[in-house]
Write a structure and sequence with these properties.
The complex is a heterodimer of chains A (373) and B (288). Chain A is of the alpha+beta class. Chain A is 38% helix and 25% strand. In chain A, 51% of the residues are buried. The longest helix of chain B is centred in the first third of the chain and has 14 residues. In chain B, α4 links the parallel β6 and β7. In chain B, α6 packs parallel to α7 and α7 runs parallel beside α9. Chain B has 288 residues and is α/β, with parallel strands linked by helices. Chain B has 2 domains: 111 residues, NAD(P)-binding Rossmann-like Domain (Rossmann fold), CATH 3.40.50.720; 148 residues, Succinyl-CoA synthetase domains (Rossmann fold), CATH 3.40.50. Chain B is globular, with a radius of gyration of 19 Å. Chain B is built from 10 helices and 14 strands. The chains are: A alpha+beta (373), B alpha/beta (288). Chains A and B meet through β8, β9, α4, β11 and α9 of A and α4, α5 and α8 of B.
């Protein structure tokens, strides 16, 4: 769940006590003209899209008067940058930069702890820098029981030209990461200005989706994922569905087994039409899930692959049979069913649909791939 | 992280629907469940074992080694801290969707107290013939049979399928270790591999991995020096690549984390990687 730059700056950085440039969000060229009249100094007009490398894509324009602000907004609004439509422009005072740095906090799986990253080489190409010169990126693992202290921050930035002004910013960045339930919080560039102040010129913030309910303001401000109609329907029903371009539809329980079913479809020469998993608490939603899977245009066969532990296969099979009898789809379906509730599930599919499940999922997938040819 | 006959298990959230159902199954196949936790039912009995107000109270009355959590996401951190502070050696955290910052707190507390977390978002751990802790159908002899193959899996459903295939091929399991599907988990593939390498009852190991993170690559470094054969399957070869917005994740993992990176790291370390799950059993059998 990503926030746009302006939302991340206001709701996360400013809230966490980190300085940001003065700026106004504009949705029309006229708003940009008015915003310039308020700011009354050289500005940058920045397209608000949840993607990196906006500068390289022409998404950032320097403007020196109200007329230019209006024209920049007009040229940016409605365009597409990195696959995202621009519906807002941030007009922001232009900073007089002495030096640009990089700072971020993210979870480190190996250390099972937050990691603070810092580099003296802030700017656009941090990914390339990591590739070319990994030593230029300094890292500190944080003990969350103690927090990230001024001393640890000072050690991380030691030797950087503006270390004294940077260390407190890193402490605040870490605190903001924790307090705002971030999955990622990044400032690039973190600029030190000619007047010696440290200011965040950009901000990327990803909200941990598992914490959305306790961060309602941030959840509301996050950019909705671009979904197809079927994906939206599934999301509303609390289901994980991804629409793909193939013709072998599939329904399985658990992300691991579902990915494996997809992989097996392609290994055996077919093309998967979707990802749809009904593991965990979603195992009771098989009927709704299958109706979405079958609504995909161009589906020529279906493979149902269950291996239940927590997810009861008898409950899932009940849902599949109910959806099948309601829709009476004109395509063949192939089953593989194992695990919790297996005997009841197999009996149900045999009696109500007259179908004998395969012993191995690979055989069910193979039959579905052949039927789709 | 391997459950034994002697392992004394406390079930947090024992009175819920899932807690009740799976505790009965665990007791049924010989697991030593010493009690459960639910502050509202403290002092009562449930499925034949005493219910305590907290893990701390349980530890005083009936010491335990392993705390198994049937706890909803919002309450998971407090339950974990209770178990860790009570002195649990191992926590098996089944809960999915625990907020990341809570998970980080749980890991830090576990480290400070020398406790091991398995999970979050795991289906649990199984030792066929001895006991199990979790929501794995470890009681089902069609799926799990005692034997000498250790299985490590990030996924419960796929891990179950792999054990079923091994059992059908006549290969029983020495231990199943469900390490969990969360991005930051308490027991890595490499640590589970090391435990099974050192386990006298294990002759071969199967790693059931998936795309994302770098755990399989790190496990490959360990597998290189192993005498026991290792076979792996990696899920997600055909998964569409996700969108990442920040650069920070890419900095830490570089080009690692993809199917190809995992497969080539494992193969370079002498691990047999199969294309299909059904080929795992044969690959194991031919290397024993």
């Amino acid at each position: 769940m990503n926030l746009l730059e302006h939302a991340a700056k206001h709701l996360v950085l400013r809230n966490g006590g980190i300085a940001i440039p003065q700026g106004i969000v504009c949705h029309t060229p006229d708003e940009a003209r008015e915003a310039f009249e308020v700011l009354r100094r050289p500005c940058v007009a920045k397209a608000q899209v949840p993607a990196g490398k906006r500068g390289k894509s022409g998404g950032i324009v320097v403007v020196t008067n109200a007329h230019e602000a209006h024209d920049a907004a007009r040229s940016l609004l409605g365009t597409c940058i990195a696959g995202h439509r621009v519906s807002a422009v941030l007009l922001e005072e232009k900073a007089n930069i002495a030096k640009e740095y990089y700072a971020a906090v993210l979870p480190d799986a190996a250390g099972r702890a937050p990691m603070v990253l810092f580099s003296e080489e802030g700017g656009m190409d941090i990914e390339e820098l990591a590739e070319a010169n990994p030593a230029a990126i300094r890292r500190a693992t944080v003990d969350v029981l103690k927090g990230f202290s001024e001393e640890e921050a000072a050690a991380l930035v030691e030797g950087a030209p503006h270390d004294a002004v940077l260390a407190p910013v890193l402490v605040k960045l870490y605190d903001a990461f924790r307090a705002h339930d971030a999955a990622l919080l990044e400032i690039n560039p973190l600029a030190v200005l000619d007047d010696g102040r440290a200011v965040a010129l950009d901000c990327k913030f990803t909200l941990d989706p598992a914490a959305a309910s306790r961060q309602p303001e941030l959840a509301k401000a996050s950019v909705p994922e671009p979904l197809t109609d079927l994906e939206r329907l599934a999301a509303e029903a609390g289901l994980k569905y991804i629409e793909l371009s193939g013709n072998v539809a599939l329904l399985a329980n658990g992300a691991g087994l579902t990915m494996t079913t997809m992989d097996t479809v392609s290994r055996l020469g077919g093309t998967p039409a979707n990802f749809q998993e009904i593991g965990g608490e979603a195992y009771t939603k098989a009927e709704a899930a299958l109706k979405i899977v079958l609504a995909h245009q161009g589906v020529k066969s279906l493979v149902v692959n269950f291996c239940g532990a927590f997810a009861r296969t008898d409950v899932m099979a009940e849902g599949v049979v109910a959806a099948w009898e309601a829709l009476k789809p004109d395509i063949p379906v192939f089953f593989s069913i194992h695990g919790t509730g297996e005997d009841e599930a197999v009996a149900l599919v045999r009696e109500r649909l007259g179908i004998e499940p395969f012993d191995f999922m690979e055989d069910a997938v193979k039959a579905a791939v052949e039927a789709a040819r | 992280m391997i459950v034994r006959k002697e392992t004394r298990v406390l079930v947090q959230g024992i009175t819920g629907k899932q807690g009740t159902f799976w505790t009965e199954k665990m007791i049924g196949c010989g697991t030593q469940v010493i009690g459960g936790v639910n502050p509202k039912h403290a002092g009562t009995e449930h499925v034949g074992v005493p219910v305590f107000a907290s893990a701390r109270a349980a530890m005083e009355a009936a010491p335990f080694d392993l705390a198994l959590m049937f706890i909803p996401p919002a309450a998971a951190k407090d339950a974990a801290l209770d178990a860790i502070e009570a002195g649990a050696k191992t926590l098996v955290v089944l809960t999915e969707h625990i907020p990341l910052q809570d998970v980080l707190t749980m890991h830090a507390a576990a480290k400070a107290h020398g406790a091991r977390i398995v999970g979050p978002n795991t289906a649990g751990i199984v030792t066929p013939g001895e006991g199990f802790a979790g929501i794995m159908p470890g009681h089902n002899p069609n799926i799990f049979q005692p034997g000498r193959v250790g299985v490590i899996s990030r996924s419960g459903s796929l891990g179950t399928l792999v054990c079923l295939n091994l059992t059908r091929a006549g290969l029983g399991q020495s231990a199943f270790i469900g390490i969990g599907g969360d991005p930051v988990i308490g027991t890595s593939t490499r640590e589970a591999l090391e435990a099974l390498d050192l386990d006298a009852g294990t002759d071969a190991v199967v790693i059931v991995g998936e795309i994302g993170g770098t755990m399989e690559e790190e496990a490959a470094e360990y597998a290189r020096g192993m005498k026991k054969p290792v076979v792996a399957f990696i899920a997600g070869r055909s998964a569409p690549s996700g969108r990442t917005m920040g650069h920070a994740g890419a900095i830490v993992t570089g080009h690692r984390g993809t199917y190809n990176s995992k497969r080539s790291a494992l193969e370079a370390a002498g691990v047999a990687v199969t294309d299909l799950p059904r080929d795992i059993a044969e690959a194991v059998a031919s290397r024993l």
